[in-house]
Input
Amino acid sequence: MQKPSIPKGTRDFSPEEMAKRNYIFDTIRSVYHLYGFQQIETPAMENLSTLMGKYGEEGDKLLFKILNSGDFIGGLNDAEKTSLSSIQLTNRISEKGLRYDLTVPFARYVVMHRNEIAFPFRRYQIQPVWRADRPQKGRYREFFQCDADIVGSDSLINEVELIQIIDEVFKRFGLRVRIKLNNRKILSGIAEWIGASDRLTDITVAIDKYEKIGADLVNKELLEKGLSEEAVQKLQPVLSLEGSASEKFTQLKNILRTSEVGQKGIDELETIFAHSERLGLSAELELDLRLARGLNYYTGAILEVKALDVEMGSITGGGRYDNLTGVFGMPGVSGVGISFGADRIFDVLNQLDLYPKEALHNTRLLFAPFGEAEAAWCLPLLKQFRQAGVSAEMYPDPAKMKKQMSYADNRAIPYVAIVGTTEMEQGTITVKNMQTGEQETLKPEDLLHRLTQ
Output
């Protein structure tokens, strides 16, 4: 018989791994609540008409499509089955797809529920997304995103708030990070300056790969996309600007002095940097002109977060989008959002062993009765401990004490309450500390007091 398996790029999570993941989700969720964000959820699948064309050509290829239910090719004649291209065929036999991110479904949600929403709307969403990508380290086909967005406001204070959220979350994780910032308007200004305004998408898609593939391959891709040798050469010194953020701003202002859109992008970023620097953040802030974020819907500030102590791709990203809801018939709603990559954060915290021990413990106390009479005697006690907030369980089957202790060891349960005839007669519990091996006899109320201190 063939062994069962799961699709490449997906994973099972053990109870220990889920404890770690819940620590991540709970930490992010608590910071979102601290900043006044409200939670929503949207369906795993959306109509393809909602998803297609929102992520650029590259993104469209990575959408998982869902075949129409029933006889999905019943409406096609034989000629169509053989003559249609794969894209045309997909359009005929598939009307739905798994969501690629949480931002486009959120835009659809805002348009559908516009009359129920108070703007500016601060929402967060923690759900899985799917991408038909090639699985590799840190890149999965199914992964969770933890998004926060503010829509219905143009204020740059929102960008600063999101930077503070990023800083607070990673401070709570004990993780040193660098927040990289750029602005799509600056990139538009650069495209204008090198004489390639009409190739902004090609430029951003290419330079977004700068860290992965290096300058030579980025330049090669730009030339293949039709940029002139002169334009590619003119781009090089801009992408290689050195120095502090203020020094880079000074150089940029000179380079983009004739570009109105470029100057606007510089002004926006300078404002964000100025506000952020006054807040005394723990994270490093860096102006990175190679940061492009390939998604087409960004129009203003863009950001990515890198962990400083481990090799890993971006662990958080986001940016400003001025008209995402416009494609759904509601123009003029500006928004800005971030997305924590929970799966990559999970891997980073694992590598650096940054999980607090209390986050990983589930059961604190195991009742280990010698027999059925003892088990019955333990049941009211078990209820009493749980009502007091102590996570407790009882070994349910008649078993030798060695087997019950082995179970407690495997589960990393710190205390075992041993109950036999003597304990029942005296109204006590023999408690074993599984870390030290020490045993003592206590009244149930004394043990309860100790575990709830």
